[in-house]
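During the first year of the project, the team set up a workflow for recording each protein of interest as an amino acid sequence followed immediately by a discrete structure-token representation. This format lets reviewers and collaborators read both layers of information side by side without switching files. As required by the reporting guidelines, we include two representative entries from the current panel. The first entry is reproduced here exactly as it appears in our internal archive.
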Amino acid sequence: MKNKMKRFALVILAMAMVLSACSGSKPETEASSEPKTEAVVSSIPEKETEAPTTAAPTTEAPTTAAPTTEAPTTAAPTTEAVTEPEPAEIPPIDFDPATNKTYNVMGIEFQVPAKWRQNGQAFYASEKADDLSFLIYMGQEGVSSSMITNPAFIESYSNGLKSSFQEDAELISYELEEVAGREMIFSKLRGRSNGMEMMLDAASMAAPSGNGLVAFLFLHPIEPATNYMGDFRMILENLKDVEEVPDTSEAATEAPTEAESKQATEKKMSQAFDPATNLRYTVKGLEFQIPVDWKQNDPYFYPSTDPEQFAMVYYAVPEGTSASMLDNSVFVESYANGLASSMQNGKVIDSQMTEIGGRKMLIVDLEGELNGMELEMTFATLASPEDNNLVVFGYGQRISGEIDYAEDFLKMLENLKDVN
């Protein structure tokens, strides 16, 4: 259960904080591709890689011939051309059109190797402790296809992806490239989440409708034991436009969801928050309190370890942010929609600037599905007193859970304290 929760938290960080992140309708898949719930070990050794070096062109200094009875001549300077070797193409390991499973997001059909295990919007190529590699797909409506080729959008979108990591996020490169006749924004980043240092390769493109954005994110170790980038490239090269077909199955039209059953279950309000016994933690100059009996896996805290009663509180410090962003209405709207887009069938229930405990905060309430669980979530975003960057506190729990921890989360926000 512990590893399952760590995997869940990693997916949230990889998806929820991308300002222009994408989500779409549930993928259409073969009957045999139902998601499983096996645990994923998510600890990765930290390895550093040296940046590739390019030899600079060398220029020979001009030489002047010694004077003779003839007119002196001066040798023209020569420049030796240095050509960069083309990187070797990485072959796919598991991608096989004969056995791949197909899915559909916002009218784009994509293939995933049959060996990759699906869990919601994530597909795991490797679940080894030292070689965790997985693909995430997302889609967001309301983004014009013309923005894909807008240089300002490409830059801001790629920088926004840095928020996928909890710390040490770095944007390595971004460019517009055509793959199989489809223009895509390629963004490459590295960073650290949940103690793991990883690379993120993202390919984002316009939905066939012209009014949406689809993204495929591939997260993997900096020095993977098995390199699946060839498979990722093949997934992109084999994308296909298809007509979206609504799910009219009996299960889809008649089966009640957790959200529909919510009112039938009267939740018990937790009262675990107690300043006399709470444990205290600090992030970016903010002290916050957590009930003493909540399980800790920093930066995540779990009120319950029962899968049926899943609940979680966590904090994150997205890179490249500032408090002034909270005064930008465009940012606030895209931020709230991006959070909802990180979940399958996610929707914003409420989004507002408010004051809690004397602090200005953006509060976003959401509902949606992630990793097969229907969740209700709240994100509180505020300025750090340490450097004026943004700090995010998130809370989520299963809609069908019997205990409501929202009051504990609110008290946590009310009791934030500045520390030196």
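The second entry, processed by the same pipeline in the following quarter, appears below.
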Amino acid sequence: MADIVESFDETVAHQLMQLFGGQDVRFSDKPKPEMIRLMGEKKATEVCFFLSGQKLYVPHGRVGRRKAEVERLQAQNLTQDQIARALGISTRQVRNLSNAPVKPLPLFPDLPEKP
């Protein structure tokens, strides 16, 4: 994904995550209709040309969202059991997420920070 950010920008990387997050994707030289709808034909074609023939794992980017969801549901005064059922996780995971410190994770750690 870092190559995509370097060659295009973070918006393209986020769009790929939105479409294909959590999947191994083999890109052809022609974009899929959903890529065209999200990115526009020109950008989707450029991305497919850049990635054609490659198999790429596209991360889902949900690492920090789970903790935020737990906190949001806790603010609504739901119990840990109710939160666990709502999110499809165990009550132990709810407890661990509730007690976990917030760690900001960079989306693309290999890239230098912008000034």
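For the second entry, the following points were noted during internal review. The mean pLDDT is 84. The chain has two domains: 2-58, 65-99. Both points are flagged for discussion at the upcoming steering committee meeting.
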